[in-house]
Amino acid sequence: MAGTLSQDEINALLTASSSGVSLDLEEEISPAPAGSRHVRIYNFRHPDKFSKSHLSTMELIYEGFSRHLKAALFIYVRQSINFSLASVEQQSFEEYLEGLSTPSSLITFTMKSLPGSAVLEISPELTFLILDRLLGGLGDQPVKIRDLTEIEHGIIRKVADRTLMAFRMAWSEIYDVEPNIESLETNPQLLQVVPPNEIVAVATLEVRIGEATGAMSICLPYLTLEPIMAKLTRQTWFSARFEQKDGENIESANVQESLNKVLLPVSIELGRAKLTVKDLLALKPGDAIELDTSAGNDIRVLVNGRLKFLARPGLIGKRLAVKTTTTVE
């Protein structure tokens, strides 16, 4: 039978094993017959818990996060700031910690109705870039990395609040995560979010402020995301995007309908004249005031006090009227 060892072959293997002689198994074992099932190598130490679909969906989420974050922090730092998604990958929590610098700004946070905690990491370079900018500097690349003062802790916590607001907006297509900050650490070894061998999804962003650069990452444990894994699909994300767009269209239509019913005052300016105080005080009924508008010229139409049209005066029946001739942009 193909794939079955004879007694002589078994004896040879036993002899080699006891004597310490190695055998070339590729020569001894014949290749698998055509049509046999393909075997994939499985890493029991670091098993894949996030599928390619999960990771690609998170890429979409974090690309949106980059855009939201740029808008959230641009006014705050008062300087051009750009975020680009570098990677979304799964690894053990231990591997994630080994890749962090000391000191870093490490913000642990919880998410509504989801177990455990997650981590927002702001690299020391980016931390001091932001601090320098917010404290009146030019946002230059830091020369020396040091521990944060209490005041700087408070500033970075506010930056983290704004960052997590953008994070919530980006995840809203999948689930309203409603993040809440727990603590701010600077030593990666003090983080005890999950056991070292637990699998986490890590999104890394590259950040540029002016000519200086830094990095930021978000670490989400599998155990935390497990309750919503069924929603973490591209179909759910795209469906939510379309629903959001439809909702925005409906809201826009409602706003437009409401605006259409707003009443605005319209006034007609026949012309202008300049009088001295003496002439003004001498005015009485029956006096004529010469205007700066010629009889054949257009007159001004004001909407809510602002010039909107030019028009010609006339009559409709027994009522005064104007006929618009030009729209003023």
Indicate the radius of gyration in whole angstroms. 36 Å
Number of helices: 9
What spatial order of strands do you see in the largest sheet?
1-5-6-3-2-4
Alpha-carbon distance between the termini? 91 Å
The shape, in one word, is elongated
Total beta-strand segments: 10
Determine the fraction of residues in helical runs and give it as a percent range. 25-40%
What is the fourth-level CATH superfamily of the largest domain?
CheC-like
What is the top-level CATH class of the largest domain? Alpha Beta
- Quickly give the structural class: alpha+beta
Q: What number of structural domains do the residues give?
A: 2
Mean pLDDT: 83
